[in-house]
Amino acid sequence: MVVVFFGTPAFAVPTLEALLRSSHTVAAVVTQPDRPRGRGQKTTASPVKEAAVAANIAVLQPASVKTPEFAAELSALHADIAVVAAYGQILTQQLLDTPRLGMINVHASLLPRYRGAAPVHRSIINGDAETGVTIMRMVKALDAGAMIAVVRVPIGAEQTSDELERELATAGAQLLAATLEDIAAGRHHETPQNELDATYAPKLTKEDSRIEWDWTTARIHNRIRGLHPQPHAVTFAHGKRLILHRSRASEGMATLKGGTILEAAGDRIRVATGDGVIDLLELQAEGKRPMSARDFLAGHPLTPGTVLLPSA
Description:
Blueprint: E1 2-7, H1 13-21, E2 25-30, E3 35-37, E4 42-44, H2 47-54, E5 59-60, H3 68-76, E6 81-85, H4 93-96, E7 103-107, H5 119-125, E8 130-137, E9 147-154, H6 161-185, H7 217-226, E10 233-237, E11 240-250, E12 261-265, E13 268-272, E14 277-285, E15 291-292, H8 293-299
Parallel strand pairs: 1-2, 1-6, 2-5, 6-7
Antiparallel strand pairs: 3-4, 7-8, 8-9, 10-11, 11-14, 12-13, 13-14, 14-15
Helix pairs in contact: 1-6, 5-7
């Protein structure tokens, strides 16, 4: 088949690479325009564009996919099917109907659970034991199309969102390759989603970074690892913002107020929670690099009895 691929971030790269290894022809890659990225805000290409250029594949970067010009460009490719993986723009019905066999999407959740922008983060934040990837038929409604194939992936107790996303990207790429073969052979099946089971994973906001220390240890730990490496969980000590990168649930019951530092020495920064104790393993002062607990304490002393707060 002739395939057009839509994708932008690192999550989408393994799927593009799987397509390039397949028997199908990738006619073009559609990705977001080059944008300022990183701490220096240097204008750079998306990971998908870099992979496409390295493979000598034509790249389209429309500022908006809703223009007649882009619709004409897509139509001129005479694609049999389009594959979408975390592209970043909403596609119109006209575009969805342009490829002969429509468009399919690689979505990082077990649909109909976690439709929307942040399924990986939300699955960890909510303490789920497993997630997965669903290949679905794309329709105008958000992540609501019929399911074609699913793979399940367990979530480790210490796993962070970036680690899980890399695992899902690999699993999704393998599933997509097999699904395309089934579609090409006409042996795939499409199962409608149960709307009653649908949940949503909205885009993360600054409010999601807030830690309330009277929460349970599990809830705080899941929030910290679910928001790593972006946008991070944060707390405040003596009015200064601390970014929390990694943590571990600790044994023991705390009798002090949630957020009270119980121990701050050597490798241990131990904090009371609403129902127990949590160890902060890696953290970062504003404007500094992430550090282990030991390295952080060497330059940023914390005193037992200090209370961490959700805001300054």
